[in-house]
Amino acid sequence: MKGKFFLDTNVFVYSFDDTAREKQRQARELIKSALRSGNGHISFQVIQEFFNVATRKFITPMSLLNSKEYFDKVFMQLEVVYPDGDYVKTALDIAATTGYSLYDSLIISAALKAGCNTLYTEDMQDGQNIRNLTIVNPFTD
Length: 141
Hints:
Shape: globular
Number of helices: 6
Largest sheet: 6 strands, mixed
Strand order of the largest sheet: 3-2-1-4-6-5
Distance between the termini: 18 Å
CATH topology: Rossmann fold
Strand content: 5-15%
Number of strands: 6
Radius of gyration: 14 Å
Order of helices and strands: EHHEHHEHHEEE
Mean pLDDT: 96
CATH class: Alpha Beta
CATH architecture: 3-Layer(aba) Sandwich
Helix content: 40-55%
């Protein structure tokens, strides 16, 4: 992986999914690479979405104590993008021109704000380019 890259929520969720071993392995590799290289980025939205799933929807929900530990050891070791007015305006423009939902457009906007070249996500069109950002589905064969 060259340059800055952005990890969407599904990467973190799959890293805990024992029912999808190959996706779990790929997700864990992406997270390790993000932590090792210092080029991994996320947004505050990713943190919120992950903990919503992890503490409520996992087969064994993540405890709040384990959530805090994961937050410190993983999320706070990555570059976090926080929303501002321009970030939201960009997301609205992206939603209007691509047809993506506002939430997906906010993810794209955060990746752009961070100066990322690649957005790793399962939720958008693999290979699509948006303003110098390439969307990559890391879970395709």
